[in-house]
Amino acid sequence: LSLKGWVPTHVQVLVVRARGLRAKGKHGTSDVYTLIQVGKEKYSTCVMEKTTEPEWGEECSFELLPGILEEGGRDVCPPGNCDLTLTVMHRALIGLDVFLGQAVIPLDKAFNDRTCMKNEWCRLHSKTGKKEKERGELQVTVQFTRHNLTASMYDLSLKDKPPILITKQK
């Protein structure tokens, strides 16, 4: 990993759109939103009404636990922290919202394979252990980023400035 020279601190996720979703609402469509989750942190897109081809173009960012992208990181991290889980749901007016499909992207694998996911279509699957059926696809962009504010602020303060001597006034 150190060969790469940098370790990302965040993963940025853009949920672009979906297609071929199952219709769970009236009029042969769904009111659709996507839950985006890494570990315990989760975001939701807004609800696109009466469609099986929703377009969101919504973005969020997750902080990565240190070490999860390294060899064996998956074994020491709490479950779910190495995976980006995208769950597409139908917003039900009454009762529980209905599961439409999900895609799980292993972050450690994506990072180590240098997979750059730019507007990539991911197949939506059934819940674990349930029979697979056609659930459509979700288009996402996944980017690893490094937010290093503290260091860069620190560097800026050191550059081009003579050291300031603080002397106590007697």
TrEMBL record:
InterPro entries: C2_dom, C2_domain_sf, FIP_classI. Keywords: Endosome. GO terms for cellular component: early endosome; mitochondrion; phagocytic vesicle; recycling endosome; secretory granule. GO terms for biological process: regulated exocytosis. It is found in: Recycling endosome. Gene3D superfamilies: C2 domain. Residues 1-122 form the C2 domain. One of its GO terms (molecular function) is small GTPase binding. This is C2 domain-containing protein.
